[in-house]
Amino acid sequence: MSIFNDQRHRRRKATREAAGWLARHEAGTIDEARFEAWRAAHPGNAIAFARALSVWRAAETPSSSLPQAQPLAAAGLSRRRALGAFGGMGLVGLLAAGGVATRAYAWDSARSGIGECRRLILPDGSRAMLNTDSLLQWRFSDTERSLWIARGEVALELLPGIPARVHGQGLTAALSTGRFNVRLQTGAMDVTVLTGRAAASTSTSAPSSAIGSPRPAEVAAPNEGLLLSAADPSVRPASPQHMAATVAWQQGEIVFDNEPLQTAVQEYNRYLPGKIVIADPDLTGIPVGGRFTSTDPAAFLSALELGLDIRATPHEGGFILTR
């Protein structure tokens, strides 16, 4: 077999395997450890999967100029046909038809329900995880990695590539390679840096200069938080306790470290269809602490009763807290 034929065989094999991995990813049955081993085994595997994902996303109708959730096209290329075409070596024709080029200007989206966490693989192989009741939209191309958090909280693990930009509440941060937790607050976006750097950004130009330059005050390093709001951006150190509480939701947990009861209840209610209500205003400032399961408040409510003599009465699917 000639070198040319060997390379062509390798590309075809990677294409077929990428289609299989993509099908398992979309079905929610992907074995992440095996997938990562396959993707790292050869550069062509990572390229094949990125192309497969682009074709898959191209099966959706292009959006308007504003980011929004994309329905499947009523007419044209369906996702099932896209995957079949890719697995059947139809990628070149799809690219030539401009499907991927058109898709570069549209936004993909994913959302999670109340109490649900959802994992995603982004077009370049980076990863995202949506916390409860969250909405993430993204647009990736050869010159752009843009993410738009429309609601909630998202953990990001960004692979090497062009600097990414994350938007939310009309605010923008530039992110390097690394791991980040991004949460929307009222009128603000809070970026916690686990690894890498996060820089405040106000322009629409590429953010690489902010990430690669000597560190100004508005750039957060590991174990720091970057808070963006209408006021000037601020960087603050994050204690080990704060870091543990920030990422606890990724293990299905919620952590309180001497938080006022009102704050703890507000945090818990993000995960619960039936809400917890504090009926006695005198209870709101009582400090609470501990580690609990985020979607089941039974242990939390039991701790309140046993440790603080606060009664939780079931009411219309939720609970009312009284003395």
Description:
By secondary structure, this protein is α+β, with helices and mostly antiparallel strands. The chain has three domains: 1-106, no CATH class; 108-238, Jelly Rolls; 252-322, Phage tail protein beta-alpha-beta fold (3-Layer(bab) Sandwich), CATH 3.55.50.30. It contains ten helices and 19 strands. It has helices at 3-27, 32-41, 43-58, 79-87, 91-96, 99-103, 208-212, 240-247, 261-269, 298-308; strands at residues 108-111, 118-121, 127-130, 135-141, 144-151, 153-158, 164-168, 171-175, 178-185, 188-195, 198-201, 219-220, 224-229, 234-237, 253-260, 276-278, 287-293, 311-315, 318-322. The protein has a seven-stranded mixed beta sheet. It has a seven-stranded antiparallel beta sheet with strand order 2-3-6-9-10-13-14, with helices on one face. Helix 1 (3-27) packs antiparallel against helix 4 (79-87). The model is unreliable at 60-77, 87-105 and 203-210 (pLDDT under 50).
A few lines on this structure:
The protein is an alpha+beta fold and 323 residues long.
Classify the oligomer: single chain
Q: Enumerate how many helices there are, as a single number.
A: 10
Which fold does the CATH topology of the largest domain refer to?
Jelly Rolls
Secondary structure: helix percent: 25-40%
Radius of gyration: 23 Å
Structural class: alpha+beta
Largest beta sheet: what is the strand line-up? 1-4-5-7-8-11-12
Give the CA-based shape.
Answer: elongated
Biggest sheet statistics: 7 strands, mixed
Amount of beta strand: 25-35%
Could you spell the SSE succession in H and E letters? HHHHHHEEEEEEEEEEEHEEEHEHEEHEE
What is the rounded distance between the termini? 81 Å
- Number of extended strands: 19
What's the number of structural domains?
A: 3
Low-confidence stretches: 60-77, 87-105, 203-210
- Taking all residues together, what is the mean pLDDT? 81
CATH class of the largest domain: Mainly Beta
CATH second-level architecture of the largest domain: Sandwich
